[in-house]
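Render this sequence as a predicted structure.
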Amino acid sequence: MGPMATAVGFCLFPTALGHCGLAWNEKGLAGVQLPEADESGTRLRVKRSFPGTPEMAPPNDVQSVIARIRALLEGTPDGLLDVELDMSDVPEFNQRVYAVTRAIDPGRTLTYGEVALRIGEPGAARAVGQALGHNPFAPVVPCHRVLAARSGAGGFSAEGGVATKLRMLQIEKAQLGPERGLFD
């Protein structure tokens, strides 16, 4: 998917987890919002994140991304790596974290420490966790695939917290390593 049309807008769409929100601009996706407790909660969160952005029917390129996000949340593996994201307001450290996170295949996981190693900052596991806590593109930047340690899920800032993270991993039949699935 190349750069978006010149329209700037947002929409809500139903998924297996509830209504997600998505905002776009001429550079790509401006943000994705995982479901809040209900549709109006999701709408409010998107409006707060993108003040003044009108709610409208998504253009065709955005509709195709929505279809892929819906399929991903139903268990269809899709890395969504070709989806353009507008990271102009995202700090450089976070962009590096998000690049590594996007490279994690569906059904696989890394720890915060492993992401820190991959960006060349082995002591930065906590900062990686904070960057993922501010991820404006979940699940396109699949922060649910990054765990605190092999023994624990860690936090998750979306509605439902860790339960939502674990549900997303379960939908993907996530593996902690090459041998054993997370839910075996």
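Summary. Confidence is low (pLDDT under 50) at residues 178-184. The longest helix spans residues 60-72.
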